[in-house]
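Archive entry. Fields below.
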Amino acid sequence: MTKLSKSDVKRLADLARLRLTDSELEQFSGEFSNILEYVEQLKDADTDGLKPTYQVNGLSTVTRADELVDYGASQKALLKNVPKVRDDQIEVKRVLG
Amino acid sequence: MSWGAIAELAADVNAGKSTATENVKKALKAIKDKAGFKAIIATLEKRALERAKEVDDTVKSGKNAGRLAGVPFIAKDNFLVFGADTTAASNILKGFEAPYQATAIEKLEAEGAICVAKANLDAFAHGSSTENSDFFTTLNPHDKTRVPGGSSGGSAAAVMLDMAPFALGTDTGGSVRLPASFCGAVGYKPTYGLVSRYGVVAMASSTDVIGPITKTVVDSALVLDVMAGRDDFDGTTIEREVDYNLQKTDLKGRKIGVVREYMSEGLDPGVKKVTLKAIETLKELGAEVVEVSLPSLPLALAIYYIVCPAEVSSNLARYDGQRFGHTSKNAKNLDDSFAMTRTEGFGVEAKRRIMIGTYVLSSGYYDAYYKKAALVRTKLINEFNDAFNQVDFLVGPTSPITAFKIGEKVADPLQMYLIDIMTVAANLTGNPAISLPAGLSGELPVGLQLIGAIGQDKSLLEAARCFEGACK
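PREDICTED_STRUCTURE:
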């Protein structure tokens, strides 16, 4: 069975932009090993000749006319939730340097 | 204090026998009186009373105010509703004001319904007990030491506490049906795509559906009738049936399959007893009952706990602290801001699912986990299709156990996941399913689950109503 070490969990946390304490890494490492052991029972299922299902009602890439749609959300209402706004734009921390 | 049938409530408001304002005040009073059960995150008192006045003014002017005129309802706090924050019971969305409304809410309001409160849930709908709420745990109306089920636990408890005649939930792996079962309510999960999810906080997009929690099947059918149908704002929505006016009053000519895998090991004896009695009732109503086997069913939970975290990890990637929601005050650069915001804002279960999802989608593991789960999902769907070529409905318990004690399962996430073992399959296949109060085991409610064929929601609700009628 798959065991996830603390350093494996650390790598996952980094990929997912999460920072974990040492005791959290320890806890998740044990839990994830249990959960993966449980889901690994799928390995034995015979799926030869089957196609994977990612969406159940058969719809794919539903499109609409390329026209302006009013979603009923004003710029003001959207910007109200933004942590930092300058001149009606979203301000983020500098990316370079 | 009970509300009675929703259609009658609305008819009384339209006829001037009662008012929307009286109904809203009654709901707000019940919410206040029963605050100790912690079913509610926020009330929309001001907006609800304003809307009630609009409905009453419409009636006074001689117009019909809609099929849900003046009917109060409660939305799970992952629906975007004007007038209150939408938190999904998570710290990362604390203070988030809906800039637009969910289609489901718009449709209900267009028929005169009034949202009075937002109900508690497991944060981001991740859980089976509301214990994963970042704010507090809801108490079961039948026993305050027990959980109400989850994740729509606040919605189910609120309905059973008569805070409103109906509540909305979301069902990704059983989150409407399980709490309905634990609380003794009717919990209905429509066919995948039947109700628009626009304006609902996404969890696992290939299985998420919206469903009503009510006291009766007819009430659920009415709420569905108002909400169902295609929506340009949700590309996964499908065509609806013409109407959901339930006609059939018996089960003559209907074939029902008892799912062997649902009746086997791990079933609580009290739950089994109630389920067997319910199956006898279905026979008395005229149904032909046969045993059906779905060999891949025991794998459904394993499929779900790959597919769901994978989709969760994608859907929760948007919470980065830049455009909305919590943002870390201590970050020095952009990458810091992402990581610190997410670390501070997400609870332990969200972190758990994000990381499992990241793992099963990552290079080198994708085929072994995510793709394999998608293949076994096809196998399960094929078995469901075969079963529905033989029978009209499948039946079994909603949950192998009744409501458990608060705290009993929090230490072991896998044990918590196993609670969903009987509900997740219908999410993976897209079939409609309903949990109906079937009796008690000791003092606690037991839910019976009926599963219908895809797109046959009306027929499922009709069968459900027949069963409900026979239980009274």
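CURATOR_NOTE: The radius of gyration of chain A is 23 Å.
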